[in-house]
UniProtKB/TrEMBL annotation:
This is Saccharopine dehydrogenase NADP binding domain-containing protein. Residues 7-141 form the Saccharopine dehydrogenase NADP binding domain. GO terms for biological process: glycolipid biosynthetic process. One of its GO terms (cellular component) is plasma membrane. SUPFAM superfamilies: NAD(P)-binding Rossmann-fold domains. The lineage of its organism: Eukaryota, Viridiplantae, Streptophyta, Embryophyta, Tracheophyta. Belongs to the saccharopine dehydrogenase family. It comes from Centaurea solstitialis (yellow star-thistle). It comes from the Eukaryota.
Amino acid sequence: MATSYDIVIFGASGFTGKYVVREALKFLDSPNSPIKTIALAGRNPNKLSETLNWASKSHTTAAVPLLLADATDPPSLRRMASQAKIVLNCVGPYRYYGEPVVAACVEAGCDYLDISGEPEFMERVEAVYHEKAVEKGSLVVSACGFDSVPAELGFLFNSRQWVSPAVPNRVEAYLTVESDRSVVANFATYESAVLGVANADKLVALRRSRPKRARPQIRGPAPVRGPGSAIEYHKKLGLWSVKLPSADATVVRRTLCILAENPKGLQGVNEDPKQANKRAAFWSTIKPAHLGVKITAKTRPGILRILAIGLSIGMLSSYPHGRWLLLNFPWVFSLGVFKKKGPTEEEVASARFKMLFVGHGFSDSELVYKGSGKPDTEIVTRVTGPDAGYVATPILLIQCALILLQQRGDLPKGGVFPPGIVFGPTDLQDRLQENGISFDLISKSRISST
Ligand SMILES: NC(=O)c1ccc[n+]([C@@H]2O[C@H](COP(=O)([O-])OP(=O)(O)OC[C@H]3O[C@@H](n4cnc5c(N)ncnc54)[C@H](OP(=O)(O)O)[C@@H]3O)[C@@H](O)[C@H]2O)c1
């Protein structure tokens, strides 16, 4: 029988992959860790070896074997998946390389986590593989990185602050990315964003082709849709902001739809009645709300710079020549934010993120139908952490993997799900708190409803 590794990190040689390897190795030799074996996988053994040297001076390829697998070679993916309990897929853009990896994991019945921020990939995988993944006992969870665990858990954390009879109506998440040096990210994330905008029509067509899902029951008025590029100044926060068309709102929405269909959450494959009650109790504290995500800057020139990057991607992505320009001159069109070589280690170490969740709702759900019908209560919560792409993302991914290894019986037998519905009722938030990603209640206050 082939060796079974607790985790196989596919795309270990990539910019993010190598930070994921470094984070995973912290748990390889620690006493109570469920990670007893790790293998690195990719298409180039020399690069995998360099990754291992960079990530750890103390581990050799004898302790951490290297597996050859290429996303364009399905038999190599099947060999990899057949040796894994969990594959952590760090090979992107996922729209190009992700689906064969999911197919191999589902076929092998192993679990699969990734750090995709591409809604079309995630929803296509759900449409094509969910039923087979249930049958095979393969749990497939995309978006286990900065996209979209802070948004999912941050939203659930804000929701839990609304104690009955209070109900939320809308949560606006304000994302701030800061650094003592420069905010820099690797090219692959930019490429995924450009390709996402270029193929927006495919996502619309995919959604139209799928059966209608249960809708979350949100109390109070639907948000007024404004122009996507409108800049706003939030006086209380002292921040300028503009809408961020990231995956977060769509991922949270999927979690809320699954919750509407399964009000007690998803049954664990081998959970006992106590755990089932705990899960149901957790979800009974969650009240659905609309979620919007905005990116912020402290100054007007700062937000204009972000808007300029967004507009250039929005305007040029749809045309082949425009795409060529965007993808060949990323540092020009992203005004220096995205680089083909990625950030330096110093830039990664000095970056951090902050996500403020400003929830508006009603102190009593009855008020939805009385008076002005406008929210009278504001609850502000916050998620903070280190560099979003290369420090927070590996922490988030590895903590999700640790939960899979330690608490598999409490999680669904298989299927394709967003992270919130799977990890929401687990101890993921506590684990993140212990690993440098904090969740805080900032304020609860009355606001004018007239
Ligand atoms: N959720 C988040 O917040 C978050 C954060 C960071 C990154 N990401 C996403 O993660 C993905 C990777 O980003 P990155 O910056 O690490 O990119 P990268 O540096 O370009 O790394 C890509 C990796 O994929 C591998 N690869 C490419 N084609 C392959 C193939 N055919 N078969 C096997 N391996 C292949 C590369 O292998 P070689 O070394 O052999 O070329 C490399 O290991 C992107 O989609 C990015 O958007 C998400």
